[in-house]
Amino acid sequence: MATTSVLTSAQPLTLPRRFLAILPGVALLTIIGLAGKVIEQSIARYAKAHHLHLPNIEYVLWAIAIGLIISNTVGVAEVFKPGIATYEFWLKTGIVLLGARFIVADVLKLGGVSLFLVVIELALSIALMTFLGRIFNLSPKLTSLLAVGSSICGVSAIIATKGAINADDEDSSFAIAAILALGALALFTFPPIGHALHMSDQFYGLWAGMGVDNTAEAVAAGALYSDSAAKIAVLAKTTRNAMIGFVVLGYAIYWAAREGRTVVGSKAAFLWNKFPKFVLGFLIVSVLASVRFFSGDQINSIANLSRWAFLLTFAGVGLRINFREMKGQGLRPFLVGAIGEVVIAAITLGLVLGASRFVKI
Amino acid sequence: MSTQVETKGAKRFSLDAWAVVLALVAVFLVRFGLIKHISW
Fold first, then answer.
1. Subunit contact A304:B38, Cβ cutoff 8 A
2. Which one of A9, A149, A355, B27 has the lowest number of neighbouring Cβ atoms within 10 Å?
3. pTM
4. Which domains does chain A carry?
5. Do B38 and A308 touch (CB under 8 A)?
């Protein structure tokens, strides 16, 4: 029996097994995403046929809402979970494909504006979260995780930092829950604020990319506004993501010095290890598009592939939101995150509105 | 036990890297006409 159990537990390591394990969840993501698209199109057709002026609610919101309802009512069965977890994979694939819609000159210009604003946002976010963590008496490592999560790229940054500073599982799950809960709130607050302020697609996208922490929610918050806003949100968020290695390295050095440990060996290797590779993929596709490697039709096809990848992502965003689990994570980390996020959203909004006076994008 | 060692010891591609590989494969399939048209 012992031998059998070892063999059985070894089975999931094989690629075909892992592929089979994700199929039900990916199918669920596809069905939810398609349902969102069908609902959007059906409402538009109905409104047109009956000469009604109904608000156009994008498939993004429907897909998120369906996922959210499933997750918080009947729940998600275990069999679907491995596949649902692939939503981040589809997000990154979609971002790489989206590179076809940017020429390098745009990336440099928008990326330059984003980078300038991101550096200011990073410094302010880290300082603010550290200050709030002290005021609310959170553990120093939880404070570091919240600071990294809110300043760079949410869950990925928290996971990367957790290993680098030897934080415990409880602290990282608190930080992840707070960042996810606040990302979910951003989906429902950013678009109305953007509309109320009559923000252009470009500057709203810049704000969503800078103000929403987790990449999936940042892209969704952009897509809820418009397709162009999603495009800019991806670029701004990608710029933020590219900074992950530097900030995690900074925290690793700080905590190693504080605990009397040896600092990581090669800093270059550390930076490369933490650098999000999909940013490179995005740049490669963007360079190919810039040298006219693709025809206009091919760029449209690649951009549509990107939309399909995002469709699966948005379904996953909704399925991942579980209010009961969030409630069980404790109030203080959530409060620190919430106060910090509101202030950071206000600061980034101010930065973006300020930039809109001086820069044309 | 041995399974755990095998899992940790194996050098695996990151999620990011797989996403880049899949996207680039799709891009080249479109570029060289193996995928003719993707509609939305």
1. yes
2. A9
3. 0.78
4. 23-358 (1.20.1530)
5. yes
